[in-house]
Amino acid sequence: MSVVTPSGRNEADHLDTLTGAYALDALDDVERVRVERHLRECAECRAEVTSFAETTARLAAGVAVPPPVSVRDAVLAEVGRTRQLSPASGPSHRRGGPAVAARWLAGAAALLLAVGVGLGTAAWQWRDEARQAQQAASGLQDVLAAPDRQVVDVEFPQGRGTVVAAGQDVALVTQDVPGPGEDLAYQMWFVAEGDIRSAGLLEPTGGGQWWAEASGLRSGDAVAVSVEPAGGSTQPTTDPVMVAPIPG
Amino acid sequence: MGDVSFLRPDRSSRRGARNAEGASDPLVAVMHRVARGDEDAFTSLYDAVAAPVHGLVLRVLRNPAQSEEVTQEVMVEVWRQAARYSGDRGSVRSWVLTIAHRRAVDRVRSAQSGADREDRAGRKDVVREFDEVSEVVEHRMEAEQVRRALTGLTVLQREAVTLAYYGGYTHRECADLLDVPLGTVKTRLRDGLIRLRDEMGVSA
Predict the structure, then answer these.
(1) Chain B residues closer than 8 Å to A159 by CB
(2) Cβ partners under 8 Å of residue B160, min gap 6
(3) In sequence order, what DSSP letters do the residues of A61-99 get, joined into one string?
(4) What residues in A contact B110, CB-CB < 8 Å?
(5) What are the pLDDT digits (tens) for A185-215?
(6) Is there a contact between B54 and A56 if contact means CB atoms under 8 Å apart?
(7) Predicted ipTM beyond 0.85
(8) Which has more pLDDT, B113 or A79?
């Protein structure tokens, strides 16, 4: 079996055999991230994946079933009150290397606009849960108790969370957020224009909760989370799963 | 709404676009309007893609109530992300269906209790089940084409591709179910798709 990739690069060795599984969403998260990284740099594999997506679209059309009218009504109603994302900087797999960070920033900036900023509401309850879960984390306690704290409710693709910021300190607590996948971690970031700084990994507290706390937030920063290889990355390697603007 | 009828999924224009889907995709213009927040355009888009989306989600999830929920989520997601669609990513329909498949698969994998697992084991039938062709008249031609193309695969290619796509199984699960090495499944998934693609005349 040949291991020479279309682009002939070593690191890609067997990745070209994964394009099929990738197009069928049959990979685990680690492999998917690796393939996506490869796709950013390999036009041939990218073209193959696109042609596979056209192929699987036929497979879907072959089993078409119209949804009930109630779904149509619900979708159209929801669309009327759902804000659209602004365009990202480009196709997610067009650029390579350092440009990933730029793309990520652009995506984060777009998401900033889309994420609703709410103060308070359900945050209280989660904050209490977080307080119980993390009795020992005095730093977190301090953030949660600070009189000048800002509370931002955030949504993850699944589940939600609360970011609490006080001065330079930030605490994040989630609820009903599933694990990031085998050999992966959730990593928190401080995001400013042209500047992304790691704010450490999220830790599980059990029961679908994750939390993190960090110091070093600057005025104007957003707080974001992405899925990274276990141990974390120096710069994000995937699109953010959550971005929270910190008001003021 | 002159172009609404142009978009009806029963038009055979799509088959004409077979070899240059991205270029002559009539939904691209609609997508541009959707990206600018045009809700009427979105309604047209919905009517053009909802049946394949729902059929696919239903095939993967099996549970009608959950499938309706996921179909709704997918279509709202398409609205939210409309400005991120780019012709480089292929046709509008394949972009939407990629979102749909991923969402359905996420739902299956995140909700896997032991009972779900058992239930999913029953899904090995997906392999034989393609005989339930789409009831939707406008998709019948495509269903026929898909059936023919699937017949052109080797048994292992067909089983691997249908388990992964219609069943939502990972390649590891496919390898277990089919009792073949993981490397073999990876290869069959890819060469199976290549053969399907060529059989169905999708441009490479």
Answers:
(1) none
(2) B174, B178, B185, B188, B189, B192
(3) HTT--PPPHHHHHHHHHHHHT-PPPPP-SS-TTS--TTH
(4) 158, 178
(5) 899 998 887 778 889 889 887 666 788 888 8
(6) no
(7) no
(8) A79
